[in-house]
Design goal:
about 100 residues, mainly alpha, two-stranded antiparallel ribbon, 5 helices, about 5% strand
Length: about 100
């Protein structure tokens, strides 16, 4: 179950609906983002910490920015930032 305000079915379909490509193949928009906000562990952590900011991400650019910030915070807490900052930026840019 999703705890997210989609503004009804139309809002959900606009953000995560099925698109048909020129070659006839059908895919879901923002599938990675949908899988991310459907994660039960994310919801449990949000309830436990009372921080729902990760559940309010609405597009992939915001998700990429938040993930980059979390990775950088983790790197700075655990290692020397100068040795891994370039590597982390390269990995994030590939996403």
């Amino acid at each position: 179950m999703l705890y997210y305000n989609f503004d009804g079915y139309e809002g959900f379909n606009c953000r995560f609906g099925i698109i048909e490509h020129d070659n006839g193949k059908k895919t879901r928009r923002n599938k990675i983002l949908l899988d991310f906000i459907k994660d039960r562990n994310l919801l449990r952590k949000a309830i436990r910490t009372n921080n729902f900011s990760l559940l309010n991400i609405s597009n992939m650019a915001d998700l990429k920015k938040v993930m980059f910030e979390k990775i950088m915070d983790s790197v700075q807490a655990n290692m020397r930032p100068t040795s891994t900052t370039g590597y982390v930026k390269t990995v994030i840019q590939r996403l």
